[in-house]
Amino acid sequence: MSEKLWGGRFEKSTDEMINDFQASINFDKRLYREDIAGSIAHAKMLAKCGIISADDLQKITAGLKKILAQIEAGEFKFSAELEDIHMNIEKALTDDIGDAGGRLHTARSRNDQVALDMHMYVRRQVEEIQRLIIEMQKALIDAAEKNLSVIMPGYTHLQRAQPILFSHHLLAYFEMLQRDSDRFCGVYDRADIMPLGAGALAGTTLPIDRKFVANELDFDAIYLNSLDAVSDRDYILEFLSAASILMVHLSRFSEEIILWCSREFNFVELDDAHCTGSSMMPQKKNPDVPELIRGKTGRVIGHLTAMLMTVKALPLAYNKDLQEDKEGLFDAIDTVKFSLAVFAQIVAGMKIKAENMRRAVEEDFSNATDLADYLVKKGVPFRQAHEISGKLVHHCIERGIYLKDLTLDEFKNFSDKFDADIHAAIKPETCVNNRNSFGGTSTEQVKMQIVEARAWLKEVE
Ligand code: ARG
């Protein structure tokens, strides 16, 4: 006979294939901790409000703790026949403690129960992700500090633009991750609203105390509208959106590392332990890890898109479509956490080829803006200075030399404003350190960024 908890109005048992189709236990079993904590808080509230006896509460609490231990020991038998984590646990409890177990679901529906579990689960995962973001940020600051004065070309249009500090480039990613962390704070706030007590959709006839449950489970607020409580998945959309943006940041950095590892750039080398070889080409050392992070970004964005599609045009309140909120979210959580952990290692183990970066600056014209700025400081209008510098660059290209190779006389042929200090003015170090405007690439500004970054990390730890 069927062991379904809702079997009363049915004559036939569920078709086996339908059972498998609609069961979520294979993936929602990861909510077991939240489900049990939520049920204990609910039972305490029922007892406090005189809806169940103290004796029932004691049995329920002990029974649920026993189930928790069984699940953690891998001894609990999950069944697809019982659909989901909620009914698997409730059935096991009732089998164990009898009638008291049958009273646990008083004034509750799986609709508000699953909402509660998911809110708690998202809160916990947000905290874990924020911790991993910090680890990645630490790896970035460490690498920035270690390579503080390494100069590389900064790019626009993937063309060498102006010399910058490599540390400045790394710290740009620190800032992006900082915003990611902030965004996750917003996700936390929207997940920090307590839905239990909404019942299936309309509340309950029983004298419950939702504030008590919110307090027990450390929620900041309670849903004001029961329909909203059971059908809101905004916090999941926001999670997936914050996760997508974070992955996009990791993907941009991955792309740069992949380029930098190429023979064409040759700016960094990844640790052997972080790369793989080719089964055919003996010389290969491939940056698979950043490639894979770049690839997985599409997958997380896909989960966001899928979830938006799921809720689009969904009538209130609960519909089974909402069960589809889980697999994508869980996969996004796993992907983001794994990617962050792996990326922190990649950054920590990355060998910086400072000489090659330097050569890329010296053997090019990324100091041309500095040449123009030099003339501006001698009173030449910027547009004219730009024109003169452009002509000098053209002159050098024709002769196959660089600006630093020109003699003072040659400079003077283009403008009488050039003096003996011109060569010093277009050295990479000068170019970098003169960009001392707030947030610029000078050593002073980068040191300031590091101080700010360390202070922030101290604050959150
Ligand atoms: N497994 C379901 C889900 O994840 C739980 C809620 C089921 N509610 C219902 N009315 N069938 O959404």
Write a short abstract of this structure:
This protein is mainly alpha-helical. The protein has helices spanning 16-22, 25-28, 32-48, 54-72, 85-97, 99-103, 110-146, 166-191, 210-216, 226-231, 234-261, 288-311, 325-349, 354-362, 368-377, 382-399, 408-414, 422-425, 428-434, 443-460, and strands spanning 151-156, 159-165, 193-194, 221-222, 268-269, 351-352. The strands form 3 sheets. A two-stranded antiparallel sheet has the order 1-2.
Distance between the amino and carboxyl termini = 55 Å
**Anisotropy-based shape:** elongated
Helix content: 55-70%
Fraction in beta strands: under 5%
Bound small molecules, which ones?
arginine
| Low-pLDDT windows of residues | none
Number of helices: 20
Strand order of the largest sheet: 1-2
Strand/helix succession: HHHHHHHEEHEHEHHEHHEHHHHHHH
Number of DSSP E strands: 6
Query: pLDDT average, as an integer?
Result: 96
Instruction: Report the structural category.
Output: mainly alpha
Radius of gyration: 31 Å
| Sheet with the most strands, sense and barrel status | 2 strands, antiparallel
